[in-house]
Structures are given as structure tokens and as C-alpha cells.
Amino acid sequence: MAAALSGSQRAILWYPPAYDIRVETVPIPQIIDPDDAIVKIKLAGLCGSDLHIYRGHEDIDKPFICGHELIGEVVALGSSFHPNATGRPELYSTLQVGDKIVSPFTVTCGECHFCRVGSTSRCIHSSLFGTPSLPGGQEQYARIPKAGGTLYNLNALSSAPLDVSKVAESSLLLLADILPTGVFAALQVLQHPKLSPMLTGLPYPWSSNIPSGYDCAGMSSAVRDDDRNITIAVVGLGPVGVCATVSLLDMLASLQKERGITYRVVAIDPNESRRTKMQAVHTAIDAKDKLSGEVVVTSIEEGKRIVAEWTDNAGCNAVLEVVGNNSALTLSYELVCPFGVISSVGVHQEPPLPFTGREMYAKNVSFDFGRCPVRAMFPIALEILLRRQDVFGTVGETTSLIDKIVGLDQAAETYEMFDKGKCGKVLFDPWL
Ligand SMILES: NC(=O)c1ccc[n+]([C@@H]2O[C@H](COP(=O)([O-])OP(=O)(O)OC[C@H]3O[C@@H](n4cnc5c(N)ncnc54)[C@H](O)[C@@H]3O)[C@@H](O)[C@H]2O)c1
Ligand SMILES: [Zn+2]
Ligand SMILES: [Zn+2]
């Protein structure tokens, strides 16, 4: 079962202190724990999260193999994988050498409390690929710890209703991180109790999860139709921001049909080429789905002006922060209305948050931060991936999320271009 691989492979390494990317020959990883799998990488993504390390913002002082987004094929399995592996996640008894897999960007055991309740990004065994403690996916072979809990077997997902055999292979890479993260950013606001008065037509606190015994029967709601017009800002339109906006529009369209809400979305980025991509994606979606809501893609200053005009200076009900710096958090706070919610999926660094307690108090604002629980988001992300192959399934077109697929040799220049916002999502094919 554990077909031992020996020899060397090529990999992208980051060197401290910053901006130093090299392609080197390193040993092929080996199984070191019975729960491990070794995967031959088909494609690996370059992500905004790699940029925080690239820029030297994460206080790392030794070189390591980069990347945390990967799809590939199982080439070796540890001894935990056998047909009688009962009482453990299903893949320990079903995964086979030769199966095609996608790996979430963090290790997920599938067996701890956090995994069981869906908070999978905070698994007690969590470890992030592409860090000094766990080599990443930008190489030819990768070791996947706790693989029976971590991996998705794509071969098991090749029949209706969620049939991945018909989608572009490159689009499956987006399930490793950025599409689930976009779904997470959107769900964190749409499922938030602060949005429920708009979604249910009932005022707070009757709008969600009142314990029984406090019946609101007989209460008349003062919520008017114009109160149910939800305004949402997306701050940051890199690849994750585009995924967040596409996911948000998908969910808002269905809420509009089911609950009768109306909505307006302002999507903001200072970088013109990022706005051009978002605009092209939205135009394509709108042409096909005839969206009922208003969507504007714009710059920071114009975004502030539009929100003030749309909401009579009150601000947005919710903001999705998809950047990962303090200027974006400050903007998000400026844009949000009292009793609003900010869903921050940007990866933030050491500096303190740019708000005072008084500012938090003054708006009754809710914040949600943190790492996407990819496994929990995976089924919804997969549905959106299948529905939106026009955006996710093509490469290099004006409406494509994925800009290009390059070999490892182009790593240094690709990191530099992505860092400067001169390209969108790039995938590495380590066999080119
Ligand atoms: N929470 C998670 O699990 C998770 C997962 C994946 C990525 N991320 C994070 O999401 C963020 C975005 O990732 P990406 O790949 O799209 O990165 P990216 O660097 O390509 O995109 C960031 C975008 O933000 C824009 N921007 C910068 N300052 C801004 C501001 N003040 N207001 C509005 N826009 C601003 C930039 O022009 C750029 O287009 C990163 O911080 C990344 O680490 C988090
Ligand atoms: Zn990523
Ligand atoms: Zn776990």
C-alpha cells in the first residue's frame, strides 16, 4: 500500500528575510506517520496568504517550501489506511493509491470536537501547509498529515448531483482555499443575527433564535419593505474578494427569491485591474442570471460616497473585509452602519487593530475574524463551483478568475507580479 518513493523533486522555497523565492531540488517527502498520505501534485495555487510571508511580515527566520493550495493524486498511504479501519473518518477505509484529491489548506483530523462541530480550521491538530512546520504544495510531491480527515476524494464525487468529473480540473484547485473562504466571508454576514431583521421582516430580538417561553405571538412588526433592502460592501477584490463577491451574489439571489429582500452591493479596490476583473465577472453573471440587485464595482473614495448616498449616511448592514491590513479594517469600520457586522477573512499581522473600544461601542458593531473552516464550507463551495464554471472553469479570459498556469521556473517573477497586483490568480503546474 505504501509504495515508497525515493529520490528528489523540485520545489519553490521562500528564504528570509523577504522577497526571496528560489526553485530548488529537495528530497521527495516520505510517510512518517501511519495517518499520512503522499500526493503527487497536479496543480498548486499562489495566494494572497503566501504574500504575507513573502513580504516578511510573519517573523519567520528559516527557509521552507511554499504554498497551501493543492490538488493531486495519491501515490502512497500510511498503514492506518485499510478496508477495516472502522471508527475513523471514512477515507481511512476507502482512499486508494491513484485517487484524485483536493486538500484543504490546513490539516483537519475529522475526529476532534472542533472538527465535529464544523469549526474545522481550529482542529486541535491544525497545521498550515507552506510554513516551516509543514512543507507546502508548490512542489512535485507533498506529505498530507491526518490524510483520512484532511483530504477530499474527488473520485467519490463523480456522480450526480455534485459531479466533479465534468468540471475543468484547474477549477478544483479553488476548493482548497479561496472559494470556501469566499463562501465563509459571505455566510458569516448572512447568517449573523444582526442581519436577521432584514431577512425575516421581524425586529431584533425576535428575528432569530429566541428560547421557547418568550413567545412573540401577537406582536406586530414595524419593519417596512424599505428596511429590508440590504446593503453590503466587499473591501478587496483580489482572487479571494472575487470569490467572496460571487458567493455573496449567489446567496443573495436565492434569499431574494425565498424571502423577498432586495439588495445592493458595492465592491471596492484601489487597484484598477482588480476592479476590471470584478466588473467583467459581474457583467457575465448578470447577463446569465439577470440579478435583481444593484452591484457597483469602484474605488475607495467613490465607494464611500456611494454607500453614503444609498443609505442616507447610515452605512452598510455588512462589510466583507478581504484584504488583510489595517487600512482595510479602518475602511470597513467607516462603511458599516450601527448594529452592522464586519466579516474579516483577511489575514492580519502583528500591529494592534485600528479601533478604540469607544468606536466599537459607538456603533454596536460585530466583528468576525479568522481562518476559513474549509471542510465545513466545502459542500456549498462545490455547488457554487459547479454553477459558476463560466468564472471558475476557464483560464486567461476576461471573465476568468484564474489568470494563468505556469511552471515552477517562473516562481520568482510570478510572486513579484502577484505581490504588485499585476496579475490575478496564478496556478503552478510542477511538471511543466
Ligand atoms: N481567512 C482565511 O482563511 C483566508 C484564506 C485565504 C486568503 N486569506 C486572505 O485573504 C486576503 C486576500 O487574499 P487575495 O489572494 O485575494 O490577496 P491579494 O493580495 O491578491 O488581494 C488583496 C486586494 O486588496 C486590495 N486592497 C489593498 N488595500 C485595500 C484597501 N484599503 N481597501 C480595499 N482594497 C484594498 C489590493 O489592491 C488587492 O487587490 C489576504 O489577506 C489573504 O491572506 C484568508
Ligand atoms: Zn490560499
Ligand atoms: Zn480535528
From TrEMBL:
Its cofactor is Zn(2+). SUPFAM superfamilies: GroES-like, NAD(P)-binding Rossmann-fold domains. Residues 34-147 form the Alcohol dehydrogenase-like N-terminal domain. The keyword Zinc applies. The keyword Hydrolase does not apply. InterPro entries: ADH-like_N, GroES-like_sf, NAD(P)-bd_dom_sf. It comes from Laetiporus sulphureus 93-53. GO terms for molecular function: metal ion binding. This is Alcohol dehydrogenase-like N-terminal domain-containing protein. Keywords: Metal-binding, Zinc. It comes from the Eukaryota. It holds the Pfam family ADH_N. PANTHER family: DEHYDROGENASE, ZINC-CONTAINING, PUTATIVE (AFU_ORTHOLOGUE AFUA_2G02810)-RELATED (PTHR42813:SF2), ZINC-TYPE ALCOHOL DEHYDROGENASE-LIKE (PTHR42813).
